[in-house]
Amino acid sequence: MENFDRKQHWEKIYQTKPLQEVSWYQPRPETSLNLITGSFLPKEANIIDIGGGDSLLSDHLLQLGYTHLTVLDISSAAIERAKKRLGPDADKINWIEADVSAFTPQNSYDLWHDRAAFHFLQDENEIKSYIRAASSGVKPGGYLIIGTFGPQGPLKCSGIEIKQYSQEELTALFAENFNVETCLYIDHTTPSGGNQQFTFCRLKRK
């Protein structure tokens, strides 16, 4: 998209749309939580949520007792909304305002979670940059949990074209550094009643 300002686009979304009206809203992100808890990491594991925005995942992870959480998002408005909602609990989370396509991890993570950030990357160099970041940011034996729109999912989200991924396509991109543990297709119902197919995979760092 020519002259597209990704950050400005997401700032506007989070400044104008209530959480309960965005298509990705989940009061309880069951699939993500099941894949995270199913990795059987200790509660002090270092976990990063990519594109977490003001998703409720961090709320649920705190309630489950996880103590080392990081949320990365391109939008300062999304982060501020999440902090306001969490209140004092916001201080228990490390917040990073950054575009993941240009993100260089400064820490090693036991688990890297991404629901619906990766599929917005269209440029091959940005995709490769993301794969490098995840590969360097996840500890050996750690986990990458990634969710994208599936082959029967939408072609656009929030006015932006996305890349659809089958289970095979998604895992092939990360195959050099990650082994596949599990993949599944999930149907997400949006607040407006629409249906979106997602591909979710949990991969283990070699």
Outline of this structure?
By secondary structure, the chain is of the alpha/beta class. The chain is built from six helices and nine strands.
Question: Would you give an account of this structure?
Answer:
With 206 residues, the chain is an alpha/beta fold. It has a single domain, classed as Vaccinia Virus protein VP39 (Rossmann fold, 3-Layer(aba) Sandwich), CATH 3.40.50.150. 28% of the residues lie in helices and 30% in strands. The chain is built from 6 helices and 9 strands. The strands form 2 sheets. A 7-stranded mixed β-sheet has the order 3-2-1-4-5-9-8, with helices on both faces. A hairpin with a 2-residue loop joins strand 6 and strand 7. The radius of gyration is 16 Å and the shape is globular. The mean pLDDT is 95.
- Number of DSSP-assigned strands: 9
Structural class: alpha/beta
- Which spans of ≥5 residues are poorly predicted at pLDDT below 50? none
What can be said about the biggest beta sheet? 7 strands, mixed
Radius of gyration: 16 Å
Order of strands in the sheet with most strands: 3-2-1-4-5-9-8
Just give the CATH class.
Alpha Beta
- What is the number of domains? 1
Which fold name fills CATH's third level, the topology? Rossmann fold
Average of pLDDT? 95
The CATH architecture term is: 3-Layer(aba) Sandwich
Shape: globular
**CATH homologous group name:** Vaccinia Virus protein VP39
For this structure, the quaternary state is single chain
